[in-house]
């Protein structure tokens, strides 16, 4: 049985303070994405900005041995791309930026996929649908619902648009640790799985492929890519389930 760590109102407020730092980090990185910038440069900018806030540290640096602070996944890379000075972004690329922050003893986690210069309309549509799926998943994070309701909401948006949901990778609980129970798949059936309770804090993170849902992991043991080489998008927020509805903790207004 999963062990669910429910958070108090005070703990959720602490997570929101870290989440604001994370939201500001992503906003900064979004503005730095352009043709000619390397993923290694983005990683350096993100890490320095996080550490510029007293007490805040990049949650991913060294986590399970990951070498960077920002997961930078380009085009057909779904998640866990390793930042490198040798990986230079080009016009028309898309890059997913996945960042974690540890602050006041709590973890928050968020991601977004950013266009590099002008991108093809079909790639913009992939980003738009994935962002919409995240919003639907967040809206489903309400008392009385279950984890399956979140997955169902995401899956419905994605598949209606003709895209596919990654099934080997899921959202998760977050807070005291970077990964907690329960798992939060991006597919499911209503009223199935863990029931949502006040104080539950979860990372909801649709990973959406333009083609097939299958994945494989590259030889670096980290980077997960689409099995057919088509593009993938990833959007994520840390969300608290509260009596007043879902509260996004990784927003500038958290």
UniProtKB/TrEMBL annotation:
Per UniProt, which keywords does this protein have? Answer: Aminopeptidase, Hydrolase, Metal-binding, Protease
UniProt: a divalent metal cation 2 binding residues:
109, 172, 205, 236
Reaction catalyzed: Release of N-terminal amino acids, preferentially methionine, from peptides and arylamides
- Entry binding sites for substrate: 80, 179
Please give the CDD domains that the UniProt record associates with this protein.
MetAP1
Q: Where are the transmembrane segments?
A: none
Q: Does the keyword RNA-binding apply?
A: no
Q: Which GO terms describe its molecular function?
A: initiator methionyl aminopeptidase activity; metal ion binding; metalloaminopeptidase activity
Q: Which cofactor does it need?
A: Co(2+); Zn(2+); Mn(2+); Fe(2+)
Which GO terms fall under biological process for this protein?
proteolysis
Cellular component per GO? cytosol
**Domain Peptidase M24 positions:** 14-243
**Chain residues that bind a divalent metal cation 1:** 98, 109, 236
Q: Name one Pfam family in it.
A: Peptidase_M24
Q: Which InterPro entries match?
A: Creatinase/aminopeptidase-like, Pept_M24, Pept_M24_MAP, Pept_M24A_MAP1
Keyword check for Chloroplast, yes or no: no
Q: Which NCBIfam families match?
A: met_pdase_I
Protein purpose: Removes the N-terminal methionine from nascent proteins. The N-terminal methionine is often cleaved when the second residue in the primary sequence is small and uncharged (Met-Ala-, Cys, Gly, Pro, Ser, Thr, or Val). Requires deformylation of the N(alpha)-formylated initiator methionine before it can be hydrolyzed.
- Assembly notes: Monomer.
Q: Give the family from UniProt.
A: Belongs to the peptidase M24A family. Methionine aminopeptidase type 1 subfamily.
Annotated protein name in UniProt? Methionine aminopeptidase
């Amino acid at each position: 049985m999963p062990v669910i760590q429910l958070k108090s109102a005070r703990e959720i407020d602490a997570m929101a303070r870290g989440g604001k730092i994370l939201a500001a980090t992503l906003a900064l990185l979004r503005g730095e994405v352009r043709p000619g910038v390397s993923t290694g440069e983005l990683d350096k900018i993100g890490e320095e900005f996080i550490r510029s806030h007293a007490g805040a540290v990049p949650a991913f640096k060294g986590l399970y041995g990951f070498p960077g602070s920002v997961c930078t996944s380009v085009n057909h890379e779904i998640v866990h791309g390793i930042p490198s000075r040798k990986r230079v972004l080009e016009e028309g690329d898309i890059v997913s930026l996945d960042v974690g922050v540890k602050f006041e003893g709590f973890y928050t986690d968020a991601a977004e996929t950013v266009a590099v210069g002008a991108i093809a309309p079909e790639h913009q549509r992939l980003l738009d649908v994935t962002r919409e799926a995240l919003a639907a998943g967040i809206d489903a994070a309400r008392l009385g619902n279950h984890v399956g309701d979140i997955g169902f909401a995401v899956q419905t948006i994605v598949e209606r648009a003709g895209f596919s949901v990654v099934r080997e990778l899921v959202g998760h609980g977050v807070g005291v640790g970077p990964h907690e129970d329960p798992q939060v798949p991006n597919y499911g059936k209503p009223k199935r799985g863990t029931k949502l309770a006040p104080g539950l804090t979860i990372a909801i993170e649709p990973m959406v492929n333009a083609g097939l849902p299958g994945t494989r992991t590259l030889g670096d043991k980290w980077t997960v890519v689409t099995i057919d080489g088509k593009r993938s998008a990833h959007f994520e927020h840390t969300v608290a389930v509260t009596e007043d509805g879902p509260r996004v903790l990784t927003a500038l207004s958290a």
